[in-house]
Write a structure and sequence with these properties.
The chain is α+β, with helices and mostly antiparallel strands. It has two domains: 85 residues, 2-Layer Sandwich (Phosphorylase Kinase, domain 1); 213 residues, Transferase(Phosphotransferase), domain 1 (Orthogonal Bundle). The protein contains nine helices and eleven strands. The chain has a five-stranded antiparallel beta sheet with strand order 1-2-3-5-4, sandwiched between helices. The radius of gyration is 20 Å and the shape is globular. It is found in: Cell membrane. Belongs to the protein kinase superfamily. This is non-specific serine/threonine protein kinase.
Amino acid sequence: MWRTFSYLELCQATDEFSENNLIGKGGFGSVYKARLGDEMEVAVKVFNLQCGRAFKSFDVECEIMKSIRHRNLIKVISSCSNEEFKALVLEYMPSGSLEKYLYSSNCILDIFQRLNIMIDVASALEYLHFGHSAPIIHCDLKPSNVLLDDNMVAHLSDFSIAKLLTGEDQSMTQTQTFATIGYMAPEYGREGRVSANGDVYSFGIMLMETFTGKKPTDEIFNEEMTLKQWVNDWLPISTMEVVDANLLSQEDVHFVAKEQCVSFVFNLAMACTVESPEQRINAKEIVTKLLKIRGSLLRNVGGRCIRQSNLN
């Protein structure tokens, strides 16, 4: 059972919600780093109740987070709720987000780290889509919602716009869409259609971003040339043109094996982002394919240790 915290306790733990402790800001609230009385570091997500939808968002996140437990999902430790204040107390991820690493000049993720992180996210997605009687649709997959712990194990976070598909429904329609431009499946943007296939599409875009180092909203892209189109056009010619330059170098003794790995990754991303939702692969298949890609790279590069958490 959760132990609930009072507003006062959270206020003290965050130094009165000090800017110095602010670690993230989203549409429905802000996230602060906090130190609880027993020296435990946590993250406190405070919902912005000025935003009308934040009340619903808090209830949704509470309901969903209470019912799920997986090593690649952020754990909810507690909550705090009254008329004027609503917050979730979450486990703290000291290494920050995948987004931070992708665009940091002083800390570059290697090919294995990127594969491992994507396997973690795909495992979380498989659990959400298939681990329950009712599939849970995240609806906002993107690198800033993938948080990393001390061991660089990825945890999917932010369920504020997630949806629970109950009964026989494989999809549902909502009138307002809150997902992020660039990652949103076309059918979600067009007609508000929410389904597991939409999460798969967003995962495919994030997979491309992770291996190209380019955001879907990068200034080089527009309606005529999207990130997906750019990768797709170059894929049969040369992955070197689109891959993050930090990942592939022709001087590398393992260049051929790594180039093949990146090519497989981009092909998988294409299978995730097929225009027709019904023709996209599912999260189970994504996990299987990524494990296969990593296994093949390990054999070719030879004996690099695999992180335990990813051994299924």
